[in-house]
Amino acid sequence: MTRPILALLLIALSAMLAFAAASASRWQRVPAKDHARTNPLAGQPEAIAAGALVYRDHCQQCHRANALGDGRKRPPLRSEGIRSATDGDLEWFLRQGDLHHGMPSWSSLPQAQRWQLVAFLRSIQ
Amino acid sequence: MLLTPRAGFIWRNLWLAAWLALLITPVGNAQDKPYFVTYSHDLEEPGNLEIETKTALGQPNGGNRFGAMAMELEYGTRAWWTTELYLDGQATGSDSTVFTGWRLENRIRPLMRDHAVNPVLYIEYENTSGADKTILEVTGHDGQAGLAPPNATLRRDHQHEAELKLILSSNVKDWNISENFISEKDLGHAPWEFGYAVGVTRPLRSAASSWECTFCAEKFIAGAEAYGGLGDTFALTLRDTSHYVAPLIGWQLPKGVRFSFSPGFGLTSTSLTRVYRVGLAFEFEQIGKWFHSSNGGAL
């Protein structure tokens, strides 16, 4: 009798942990070293302008010109999620992508361009 | 097969269709590396379609000059899965123009994160004739002798082949370093054949300019690739096969057009002395949304 109850408890506990993990901010997955990195181009007008062009070339097709996404599965980039991330979080996410959910990895872009993109994303919040 | 007037009409008008599509479809920036033989771990963005032509120009000893074109339709099925269709043809001087077959390939990234070395699995089925001269890879004991006979003789040989590649690729600072291990098997009774391709590229400048430009250094990617055969299951060897080394240059033009060029130099007596390659690519954005709802993540 105790075994089925234990099994049920384990299943319930697993489900709760899975739910908690899914609810946690995606930035909690960022390694501490990356999380702590700062954008060497932060706030530079030239970097923001260049980031806008990088955004137009690579991101706009999904996230739209106004960065508000499509209101369904392509998320807005003017959001609390972006505002709560550090520059390092955003650069890490651009590098890694989220292949399961359709976001490509942009590790093929030079790192300077990823930082320019982060500078641009900050400027539109 | 030799092109009938009707097939020739269709083949020529594929280009017209591509240009018309270019006029009516939003285009993005194809930002692939300018490799012709080597693959990196870059996949097509999901929902995008890239149309690229890869042309090889060469002349085997004792044979006529040829120009062989592979038209590649590359579609991003998922962020981790790209599928491609190739249509191959060639024209040989003082001979004929022939359609030489098709290939269907899939590239899959098994690991969802970016690592120091990123593996990609490549699976391809080829249905080509012996007259195919696109040299999209070198395997087994491939050599220029196989490119010299007349098309009428070459196309009697028909190949149904499966090809597997292990693609390993790294982005180190702004460099891309890629290594491909190729194994190919004629689905008849023939041994496995092996080959390799390695490449390295880097943009001429890392940071993007803050103004629109066509000739800025960051629009150019330079590099080199080397590729060749490794024999077959009976004789795993670097001998009696072709090896090439080829500098590369890629130029990202406005409107999603990418141009690439590579002069290749044969390193062995069985290789072509020189093979020139020219590539032209267009990327069409989000073709996939015409067929299904969008996919994406949440931030």
Describe the structure.
The complex is a heterodimer of chains A (125) and B (299). Helices cover 57% and strands 0% of the residues of chain A. Chain A is an all-alpha fold. Chain A folds into two domains: 1-25; 31-123, Cytochrome c-like domain (Cytochrome Bc1 Complex, Chain D, domain 2, Orthogonal Bundle), CATH 1.10.760.10. In chain A, helix 3 crosses helix 7 and helix 6 packs across helix 7. The longest helix of chain A has 22 residues, at 2-23. Chain A is elongated, with a radius of gyration of 18 Å. The model of chain A is unreliable at 18-24 (pLDDT under 50). The longest helix of chain B is centred in the first third of the chain and has 20 residues, at 5-24. Chain B is globular, with a radius of gyration of 19 Å. Chain B has a single domain (5-288), classed as monomeric porin ompg (Porin), CATH 2.40.160. Chain B is mostly beta strands and 299 residues long. The model of chain B is unreliable at 294-298 (pLDDT under 50). In chain B, a hairpin with a 2-residue loop joins strand 6 (158-172) and strand 7. At the A-B interface, helix 3 and helix 7 of A face loops of B.
The counted number of beta strands of chain A is 0
Query: What is the CATH C-level name of chain B?
Result: Mainly Beta
Give the strand tally of chain B.
12
Give the structural class of chain B. Answer: mainly beta
| Averaged pLDDT of chain A | 86
State which percent range the strand residues of chain B make up: over 45%
Helix content range of chain B = under 10%
The CATH superfamily label of chain B reads: monomeric porin ompg
Radius of gyration of CA atoms of chain B, rounded to a whole number:
19 Å
Number of helices of chain A: 7
How many domains make up the 3D coordinates of chain A? 2
